[in-house]
Amino acid sequence: MSTTLTPTLPSMLTQRVFSRREMIPPRHDILWKIDRGAIRTFTWSEQGTLIVLGYWGKGDIVGHSLSRVQPYQIECLTSVETTMLPSDLWCEAIEAMLVHIQQTEELLSIIHRKPVSLRLWQFLEWLSKKFGRDVEQGQLIDLAITHQEIAEVINTTRVSVTRMLQQFEEEGLLVRHQRQLIIACQ
Predict the structure, then answer these.
(1) What is the pLDDT of residues 72-114, one digit of tens each?
(2) Largest alpha-carbon pair distance within the chain?
(3) Are 61 and 120 part of one and the same domain?
(4) Between 20 and 30 A from 184 (CA), which of 8, 137, 149, 176?
(5) Rounded CA gap, 89 and 37, in Å?
(6) Phi and psi, residue 30, nearest 5°
(7) Helix H segments across 40-144?
(8) Which phi and psi angles does 18 have, rounded to 5°?
(9) How far apart are CA 116 and CA 111, in angstroms?
C-alpha cells in the first residue's frame, strides 16, 4: 500500500540515500518518506531482546516523532532512498501517517495470534502484501529476511521458524526460490 504526497513537494525537499544496515538518524523535526527500499523500526527490552515495531517500504513514512518508544531505531534493510519531510509539511503526509497507524495495528494483531504457526503464516501473508510481487508460482516476498528476523517479529525461535517454514513447504503452501519465499497459488 503506497501513498503519495502532493506532486509539487518532492522537487523542493531534500533527498537522502542510506546504505543497507545503516541507521537513520534520530531527528524529531523530520519524517522520512521512503522512495525506494525497505526499513524496519525496532526497540529492545531491558534484557536486550529485540522488539520489531514495523517493516516499511516505498511510500511509507518513518520517524522518531511517530513513536514514544525509547529506545527507538530505524534500520535500513536494503539501500534506501528517502525524502526528508520537515515538520511544517507534515500536514501533507496525513494519508501516509494513517497508513502507518493501520499497518502498525495490523502487525500488532498478527503477533498476538495463536498458535505460532498461524502467527508465522499471517506474518508471511502480510509481508507478501507489502513487499510481494506476482510470479508464476504465487506471490514472491521481495525482501531478504532471515529466519532469525522473522522469529524476532513473531516472538519465537529461529529453529521454530525454520521447522514451520519446512512444514509449509511440505504442505505446498510455500515455495522457496533461492533465498526468497513465495506464497504458493491456492
Answers:
(1) 999 999 999 999 999 999 999 999 999 999 999 999 999 999 9
(2) 52
(3) no
(4) 149
(5) 22
(6) -130, 140
(7) 94-110, 116-131
(8) -125, 150
(9) 9
**Residue type at position 171:** E
**Summary count for the chain: helices (H), strands (E):** 5, 11
Domain's final residue, options 42, 61, 93: 93
Amino acid of residue 57: G
Q: 85 and 13 in one domain?
A: yes
Query: pTM for the whole thing?
Result: 0.87
State whether residue 61 is helix, strand or coil: strand
Q: Do 23 and 78 lie in a common domain?
A: yes
Where does a domain end: 62, 93, 124? 93
For residue 159, what are the domain limits? 116-184
Residue 98: exposed, middle, or buried by beta-carbon count in 10 A (0-12, 13-18, 19+)? exposed
Helix, strand, coil percentages in the chain from 3-state DSSP, rounded to 5: 35, 30, 35
Domain count, the chain: 2
Same domain, 87 and 21: yes
